[in-house]
Design brief:
Number of strands of chain B: 0
Distance between the termini of chain A: 31 Å
Distance between the termini of chain B: 28 Å
Oligomer: heterodimer
Order of helices and strands of chain B: HHHHHHHHHHHHH
Number of domains of chain A: 2
Radius of gyration of chain B: 21 Å
Structural class of chain B: mainly alpha
Largest sheet of chain A: 6 strands, mixed
Strand order of the largest sheet of chain A: 6-7-8-3-9-10
Helix content of chain A: 25-40%
Order of helices and strands of chain A: EEEHEEHEHHHEHEHEEHEHEEHEH
Number of helices of chain B: 13
CATH architecture of the largest domain in chain A: 3-Layer(aba) Sandwich
Shape of chain A: globular
Strand content of chain B: under 5%
CATH superfamily of the largest domain in chain A: P-loop containing nucleotide triphosphate hydrolases
Structural class of chain A: alpha/beta
Number of domains of chain B: 1
């Protein structure tokens, strides 16, 4: 199966500075593939190059070098745009249009008839929770969260095969975030590909099958979330009840961390090399009870922080031999 | 083609809701109405004053509309980032530019039409209240269809100004685009003087520079036939045709350059 999104060595340099222009590498040789039907999380701290990548994919900016394809067609191909949806970061629309008019206008640009455009606009505004009365108000009267909802609705007007979402949860309240999460999962269930950028890792953990982490304009890691985090078990957590203080004192040397939850109830962190079974047998022999036993895995946040620190900001000036035109 | 017309309709809709051009048009209509009162103060010259003031109002307020909406056509979209969503739809950048331009020309056409109707209404009333003897002393009839020739050329001139504003709007800020467009408009009205610059200046580089500007900047004075129309002097059909053709050629060139600049632009 050919990739839904294919990025090969994508690089973007900007000239910065007022008097003495100097090059600034916003994205440095990014290569990755996104398969059809997957939710792909594109993660990174602020200024890592996430929005730059999305803008390159939408051809809002042009690459210094490298290439990218969406659905097997080069980015910028007007025909390919018929099959994709894009939500920019902090979207902004026309102040004097109503949500209904905006969606109908965009639907018209996809070539739908007036009546079809009206039907699609109404359906999607229902889907994102913009009520009948609000949708007839001009967008200048909308809150940030409402604009975000309209933005999500316009992304789906053409039943896109590939959906690009730049920080889709931005500006949404907890309820709105939950709705967007379920919408993204619904899109995946319909067989659509979702590529979303975020710096909110819990969203990625809840949604993504695969992620890429970018930092300093470079790819820091990519792969299945389960693979990335599975081998990162770094210990065990035992929650024990009826643990007597003198027993605890005896075993403290083997523990990484002890947290008292309530009297005689403790959360004990064991390093990876201490077998939890032996410790458990030892404790139950003293009359203590097991409440729970869990492996301590790295969260995506731990993984993210470590990888970003490893890559660092890097030199953002173009490296020799990789300059524009190379 | 359909996408282009949808973009144009959206520009028109936005400018209607924005109300600024219509406030300007209303002001112009009031000015044309007021010219009737002014005309009463000057015996026998009233119809000429109304025509003069009316045509000037159409040209000046049309210019304001063309510049102040034209400069924001692209730059506002970029500044507010509404262009991000728009350009991710199946439209090309040339379609975007042409659609924006067509939308503003449509806005201008409606405004100029409203002002024209107001001018003809005042002239119709004046003709109605005047005696036949007073009317026969006029150089040209009160409700003179030839006014449309002058208004037509004003409209083509405004179309060029819009294209200039759009061109500057593709790469600069609204303020700079307004200043450059207005500057070019002023220079364009004195273009004929630049042609004869060598007769008053000896410096060769200065003459070359003047020639260069003369050939680059549109000759806006060519579009001004107000005096001829108001005084009932003949204007050859060929002249009007050639001037309109010159205007359209200029507009086409400006749109091509705008598209070339815009098509290579990064939206950071």
């Amino acid at each position: 199966m050919s990739a839904a999104i294919s990025i090969d060595g994508l690089t973007k340099d900007y000239q910065v500075g007022f008097w003495r222009k100097r090059p600034y590498r916003a994205l440095d040789g990014l290569s990755l593939e996104v398969q059809p039907g997957e939710i792909f999380g594109f993660l990174g701290p602020n200024g890592a190059g996430k929005t730059t990548t999305l803008k390159l994919l939408m051809q809002l900016i042009f690459p210094t070098s490298g290439r990218a394809e969406i659905l097997g067609r080069p980015v910028g191909d007007v025909g390919a745009r018929q099959r994709i949806g894009y939500l920019p970061e902090n979207p902004y629309f026309y102040d004097y249009l109503t949500a209904e008019e905006l969606l109908q206008y965009f639907a018209n640009l996809f070539g739908y008839s007036r009546s079809e455009a009206r039907t699609r606009a109404a359906r999607l505004l229902d889907r994102v929770g913009i009520g009948a009365e609000r949708r007839r108000q001009q967008l200048r009267k909308y809150s940030k969260g409402m604009i975000q909802r309209v933005g999500i609705a316009q992304t789906l007007l053409n039943d896109p095969e590939v959906i690009f979402l730049d920080e889709p949860m931005s500006g949404l309240d907890p309820l709105g975030r939950r709705e967007v999460r379920s919408l993204i999962l619904e899109l995946r269930d319909q067989g659509r590909t979702v590529f979303f950028s975020s710096h909110i890792l819990s969203d990625a953990e809840a949604l993504c099958s695969r992620v890429a982490v970018v930092a300093g304009g470079r790819l820091a890691a990519t792969g299945r979330l389960s693979d990335m985090l599975a081998f990162e078990i770094r210990g065990w957590e035992l929650v024990i009840a009826d643990l007597r203080p003198q027993v605890l004192e005896r075993i403290t040397g083997q523990l990484q961390k002890t947290t008292e939850i309530s009297p005689q109830r403790y959360a004990l962190e064991l390093p990876l090399q201490v077998p939890p079974e032996r410790m458990l047998a030892d404790l139950t022999a003293t009359g203590a009870r097991l409440v729970s036993l869990n492996p301590i895995r790295d969260t995506l946040e731990d993984f993210f922080v470590r990888r970003v620190a490893e890559v660092g900001e890097g030199a953002r000036a173009p490296r020799k031999g990789l300059d524009a035109g190379d | 083609m359909r996408a282009t017309s949808w973009i144009a309709v959206n520009v028109f809709k936005e400018s209607v809701r924005d109300r600024v051009p219509y406030n300007l048009a209303l002001f112009a209509v009031l000015l044309i109405g007021a010219s009737f009162l002014l005309g009463q103060l000057t015996a026998g010259q009233d119809v000429k004053i109304i025509k003069d003031l009316g045509l000037a109002a159409i040209a000046v307020f049309g210019l304001f509309i063309a510049i102040f909406i034209g400069i924001g056509l692209v730059s506002k979209e970029v500044e507010r980032r509404s262009i991000y969503s728009l350009l991710s739809k199946p439209i090309s950048r040339p379609q975007f530019i042409v659609g924006k331009y067509a939308g503003l020309v449509l806005t201008l056409a409606v405004n100029v039409a409203v002002m024209t109707v107001a001018l003809y209404a005042v002239l119709g009333y004046l003709t109605y209240i005047q005696t036949p003897a007073a009317r026969s002393a006029w150089d040209a009839p009160g409700v003179d269809p030839r006014l449309l020739e002058a208004i037509g050329l004003i409209f083509v001139e405004l179309m060029i100004v819009t294209a200039i504003a759009l061109f500057f709007s593709t790469f600069s800020t609204p303020l700079l685009a307004a200043a450059l467009t207005f500057g070019l408009f002023i220079v364009g009205h004195f273009n004929t003087d630049l042609k004869n610059f060598d007769k008053i200046v000896d410096s060769l580089p200065a003459v070359w520079l003047a020639r260069g500007v003369y050939h680059t900047v549109p000759d806006f004075s060519a579009f001004d036939i107000k005096t001829e129309v108001v005084h009932g002097l003949p204007v050859a059909a060929g002249y009007i045709g050639t001037t309109v053709g010159y205007g359209f050629a200029y507009i086409a060139a400006l749109l091509v350059v705008s598209v070339l600049v815009f098509s290579r632009r990064d939206f950071k």
